[in-house]
Recover the amino acids of this structure.
């Protein structure tokens, strides 16, 4: 027997072992496990590999192959190579554990998992994913078959989102309803997807999870229905209230009863405020049900701003509202809804800045959009609050805002309205100095 | 001669206030709290305009409106729907649609302007 110096070190072979039968040599590796292999190699010249754990916890890949001499082409023995794979084994083990844990997490949240091979476009759904789409584990569910189960009006939404993610790397995160293939049940699901890049940073796999959010969604729908119903019920008495106030006002005017006219006017203002609040709620439930329709028409932005400033100025005693002059800018949008956004920006500016401060509105043309801004000298907004500002029901909790009332709906609705117009909303602000709220609308 | 308006609403207060305001503004008014007899009332009262709520206790105002618009004796009558929940702007172009609609709560001047139209 001959051996390389590495073998001495690695498996603790001794000089004195040379010439002894393998079965009598004791090293870290139990040679008896490969004696059968050596016999086979000697007999038929095959090559055998196996993995063996040593006495001291290491792993070796052992390859046994025939030792053939050039001269006589005869099989004169066996060459045995030891390859230390301890590290590899360790990594494999860790990988197994983390895979198992991931599996447990996926199972416990009942997530469906899928991936698409970007080269072959092969769609691989997990059993749970098939179940969410109402397929049995043994069914072959293609991507097209899955899409076909999505409630039809949502199909374009989903395929568009997948395309946008696959082709433009956009974030894939959507909610949609589907109907199970075998069970026919309606389920709401939330899908989140991600790309796994290859070595050249090109998308290799598109993977994702799908979560059953039916219960959550039903609660949401019930809540919206409830809000919508309550809003409606509140509107009817408000209508009569407003009518009576107007009737009394016109009578008071006829008899020159100035006192009553003034007080009734105040009552009327309160009714208007309440109407605005109710409308806010109703709009939220409508937006969420996707029931908002844009009534787009061509109009002059500066005319609209002028109108709003004229309307709002008499109701604001303690702030100076200034509309900066600008060129006429024509835009195609829903005039009333854009007006709502401007009103919301303005009333926030009034709400969150001290008396006597200035509020500036301006409108300008950018390359392919127009930009409207409302600038105040108010308390300003911290950076960490700025991004959440447009979320539903989000209100900044601080001592300064405690005494300011609101439901946290205005900016959320504004953002929704502008986004429906394919525009953008954003804010620039510095604490203590003031904020500027912007929105932009694309010029067709 | 003053213009005649037929008002249909299941809320007594709304009926009262609308008719008070309309009479004040020189209209002749008839009020109805349910839709059962609407065709007899049209025949009898010969209104120039019908004003009605979408949500009636026993009937859907939109259905009555559709009936009026599909009846060859009444199709020419202008109808304004009053609605608390429905944004009817998108349904104005459908067959059997009202001529206009007003959302609750409405400003009476706005309503009068719509009626004038």
């Amino acid at each position: 027997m001959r051996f390389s110096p590495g073998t001495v070190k690695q498996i603790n072979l001794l000089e004195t072992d040379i010439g002894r039968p393998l079965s009598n040599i004791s090293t870290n590796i139990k040679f008896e496990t490969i004696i059968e292999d050596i016999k086979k190699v000697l007999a038929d010249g095959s090559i055998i590999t196996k993995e063996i754990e040593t006495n001291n916890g290491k792993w070796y890949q052992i390859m046994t192959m025939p030792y053939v001499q050039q001269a006589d082409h005869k099989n004169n023995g066996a060459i045995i190579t030891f390859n230390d794979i301890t590290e590899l084994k360790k990594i494999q083990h860790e990988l197994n554990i983390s895979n198992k844990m991931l599996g447990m997490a996926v199972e416990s949240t009942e997530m469906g998992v899928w991936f698409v091979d970007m080269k072959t476009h092969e769609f691989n759904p997990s059993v749970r994913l098939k179940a969410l789409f109402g397929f049995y584990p043994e069914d072959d569910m293609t991507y097209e078959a899955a899409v076909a189960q999505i409630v039809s009006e949502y199909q374009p939404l989903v395929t568009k989102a997948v395309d946008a993610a696959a082709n433009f790397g956009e974030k894939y995160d959507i909610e949609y309803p589907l109907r199970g293939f075998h069970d026919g049940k309606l389920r709401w699901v939330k899908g989140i997807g991600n790309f796994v890049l290859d070595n050249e940073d090109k998308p290799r796999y598109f993977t994702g999870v799908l979560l059953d959010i039916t219960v959550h969604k039903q609660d949401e729908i019930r809540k919206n229905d409830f809000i919508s119903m309550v809003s409606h019920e509140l509107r009817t008495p408000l209508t009569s209230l407003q009518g009576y106030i107007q009737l009394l006002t016109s009578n008071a005017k006829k008899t020159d009863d100035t006192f009553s006219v003034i007080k009734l006017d105040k009552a009327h203002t309160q009714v208007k405020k309440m109407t605005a609040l109710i409308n806010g709620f109703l709009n939220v439930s409508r937006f969420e049900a996707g029931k908002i329709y844009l009534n787009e028409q061509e109009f002059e932005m500066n005319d609209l701003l002028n109108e709003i400033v004229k309307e709002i100025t008499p109701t604001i005693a303690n702030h100076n509202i200034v509309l900066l002059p600008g060129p006429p800018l024509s835009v195609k949008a829903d005039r009333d809804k854009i007006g709502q956004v401007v009103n919301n920006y303005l009333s926030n500016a009034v709400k969150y800045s001290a008396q006597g401060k200035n509020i500036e509105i301006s409108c300008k043309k950018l390359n392919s959009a127009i930009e409207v801004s409302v600038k105040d000298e108010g308390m300003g907004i911290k950076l960490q609050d700025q991004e959440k500002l447009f979320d539903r029901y989000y209100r900044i909790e601080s001592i300064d805002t405690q005494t300011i009332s609101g439901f946290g709906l205005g900016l959320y609705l504004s953002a929704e309205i502008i986004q429906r117009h394919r525009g953008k909303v954003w804010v620039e602000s510095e604490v203590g100095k003031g904020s500027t709220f912007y929105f932009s609308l694309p010029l067709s | 001669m003053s213009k005649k308006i037929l008002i249909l609403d299941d809320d007594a207060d709304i009926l009262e206030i609308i008719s008070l305001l309309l009479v004040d503004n020189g209209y002749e008014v008839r009020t109805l709290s349910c839709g059962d007899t609407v065709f007899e009332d049209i025949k009898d009262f010969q209104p120039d305009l019908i004003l009605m709520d979408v949500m009636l206790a026993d009937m859907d105002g939109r259905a009555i409106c559709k009936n009026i618009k599909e009846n060859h004796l009444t199709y020419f009558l202008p109808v304004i729907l009053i609605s608390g929940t429905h944004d009817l702007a998108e349904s104005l172009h459908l067959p059997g649609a009202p001529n206009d609609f007003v959302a609750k709560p409405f400003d009476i001047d706005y309503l009068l302007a719509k009626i004038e139209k």
